[in-house]
Amino acid sequence: xxxxxxxxxxxxxxxxxxxxxxxxxxxxxxxxxxxxxxxxxxxxxxxxxxxxxxxxxxxxxxxxxxxxxxxxxxxxxxxxxxxxxxxxxxxxxxxxxxxxxxxxxxxxxxxxxxxxxxxxxxxxxxxxxxxxxxxxxxxxxxxxxxxxxxxxxxxxxxxxxxxxxxxxxxxxxxxxxxxxxxxxxxxxxxxxxxxxxxxxxxxxxxxxxxxxxxxxxxxxxxxxxxxxxxxxxxxxxxxxxxxxxxxxxxxxxxxxxxxxxxxxxxxxxxxxxxxxxxxxxxxxxxxxxxxxxxxxxxxxxxxxxxxxxxxxxxxxxxxxxxxxxxxxxxxxxxxxxxxxxxxxxxxxxxxxxxxxxxxxxxxxxxxxxxxxxxxxxxxxxxxxxxxxxxxxxxxxxxxxxx
Length: 402
Ligand code: TRH
Known about the structure:
Elements: E1 16-18, E2 35-40, H1 47-61, E3 67-72, H2 75-81, E4 91-94, E5 97-101, E6 114-118, H3 125-134, E7 137-141, H4 149-153, E8 156-159, E9 165-169, H5 186-195, H6 197-206, H7 211-219, E10 223-227, H8 235-244, E11 249-254, E12 269-274, H9 279-288, E13 291-295, H10 298-306, E14 310-313, H11 321-332, H12 337-346, H13 351-362, H14 366-382, H15 387-401
The protein binds 2'-deoxy-thymidine-beta-L-rhamnose (TRH).
């Protein structure tokens, strides 16, 4: 594994407890208002802070107004996806969330009722000692994986050296995992946004798309493709596949993500670099595109909620561990063999096979089947409890039972 991202298959220290997660909580009582600390260390890219920021906002937005404090070690990275964050400020409030710059000498603050450590990022030692005194609930929010062992490890606890119990919370694609981040009414919000054509037009203007391209997209004469991938992606194959299709395409690519693609654009497949935007706008870019190429963790989930055909480039790991995870995920979906083959090719370096598969999948009837299968997958996933609600339910139970 690279960057120390070890997916924990079992608690690391001490005894393991099953927290009897199926015990129902009295649903007649409104959930209490809680306080949360979320610790985020930016290892690389945007996924660590992307997930933490979405979780923080969703908890703070809940009707009972949970108090949320987010500790982040790299404010510059954060500011790239949230312009209201000022990297020069060690303490600030954005959307009612108290942001703390997590430096080697962190401020001496009293722990909240729940402390979420994202991706095993190790909260400061002194803080852990104070958590013991406060009896804080300690959650380790893990990376997303579709591997079968995740279900049996979700919500297990281990005893930390401090004596505190640490609970392992696994996001996932099945009801026996912690689920996926999904704001209330997200799919309705998307539908409403899409039903007003002026929204996509205004978005394209904000993304500085030339008027002629924007108008072609608006009239449906052109296909919009969003490209958010790692530098290893066989993106030239994507471009070749699009070039074979009679409908012209516009590829929107965030600045710096795949700079060398622009040199290969043609009048039929235009490449347009867009600025980094906030997460709300990021979602709208996905909603307004016909095909989304996403990567990592959070953008995969958001592409699912966009409900449009998508290609996922999984975060690459040593010894091709990521390909096992990709296969585990594909096995849970019901995408056609051609779509599954394209997902696998997209995670290799085979430009030619990507080109051939893209071209095949854009044609009739493969394209409408891909659209339908994606819609069905989105609807199936949306029937499951969302991650923030599941986390809240588990924390309430842990606080009640001690
Ligand atoms: O940036 P990523 O590659 O992050 C990765 C993965 O999470 C990976 O699993 C993890 O191990 C590694 O980071 C450290 O891709 P991801 O997960 O999609 O995160 C991108 C975030 O950035 C997501 O929240 C969307 C957000 N974003 C914006 O808000 N605006 C933008 O313009 C762009 C391009 C992204």
